Amino acid sequence: MFLFIYLDDILIASDCKEERLSHLRILFDHLSQHGFIVNLANCHFGLPSIAFLGHHITKDGAISLPSKVAAVLDFLRPHTTKALQELLGTVNIYHHFVSRTANLM
Predict the structure, then answer these.
(1) Where does the Reverse transcriptase domain start and stop, copy by copy (predicted)?
(2) Integer distance in angstroms from the first to the last C-alpha of the chain?
C-alpha cells in the first residue's frame, strides 16, 4: 500500500522517483474525478522524511514525535470521565509503539 489517508491528510510512500510520479498521477486522477481540489501550498513532495499525524516518517519507519510523547507523559491523573477519555484516546494513537499497552492500562 502506498497511500495513507486520514481526513484531509494524505501520505504517499514510494521507493523511487518513478514510482512516486506514478503514485501521484493515480492520486491526482482519482481526486480530480471526484471533484477534489488540492491546495499546493499545503503539499510537500519528494521529502526523505516528514512529520505526519504526530509521527516522524522516514524510509525506515515511523517514530512518535518527541512533543507528542511528552504530552502523554505529562498527562495528569484523570479525575473525570472526560479526562479519562482524553487520556485513552491519546494513548490509543500511540499504542503500537508500546508493547502490551492493554496490560499497562
Answers:
(1) 1-57
(2) 31
